[in-house]
Amino acid sequence: GNSVTQMEGPVTLSEEAFLTINCTYTATGYPSLFWYVQYPGEGLQLLLKATKADDKGSNKGFEATYRKETTSFHLEKGSVQVSDSAVYFCALSEGQAGTALIFGKGTTLSVSS
Amino acid sequence: EAEVAQSPRYKITEKSQAVAFWCDPISGHATLYWYRQILGQGPELLVQFQDESVVDDSQLPKDRFSAERLKGVDSTLKIQPAELGDSAMYLCASSLGLAGITDTQYFGPGTRLTVL
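ok -> structure tokens follow
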């Protein structure tokens, strides 16, 4: 079945460091890919998405490129801030309307000043 | 900005008691999802509605869990009786559910359930 694998956390960085969180997926079709972020005590917020191969999603300085050949959707940010500290979830859906998301286990990011 | 509403935010109950969670999706969203998120894990789907109809409840423990969306708007998830292993965050999400477009799900703040 479909699945998402994320790198294990926690990831601890200093402010202004470069961030990469790896995400790979297994899917039978051509899924849409998402990154969600969960700040402490809050629900999930959509960070960015990509719907087809080679698409790049971007938001708030974060970006991720849908790589079909490597079945990956790695999250990157050039310079992290303390306010980026949160749990990041990679997810996929088969792309059709009304399809439930399949999530990875999440990666905790902690940024110190 | 429209948001998904959930209540209560926190619930503490004893095992064998009944609990209920409520969700009000974004207006106009036809698809509604209930997910369960165990601490340290990603959310997993419990049940999915399209309007008032259940689309997928294959992962819902039907011996103790029930869900309804009677008028195709707000929804209630019930657990009876609660067990220790039900302690988790229960997340509601909604999406437009229109065919032919990539559907983005919007999540509520969740209900954190603790079963003692």
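Chain B has no helices and eleven strands.
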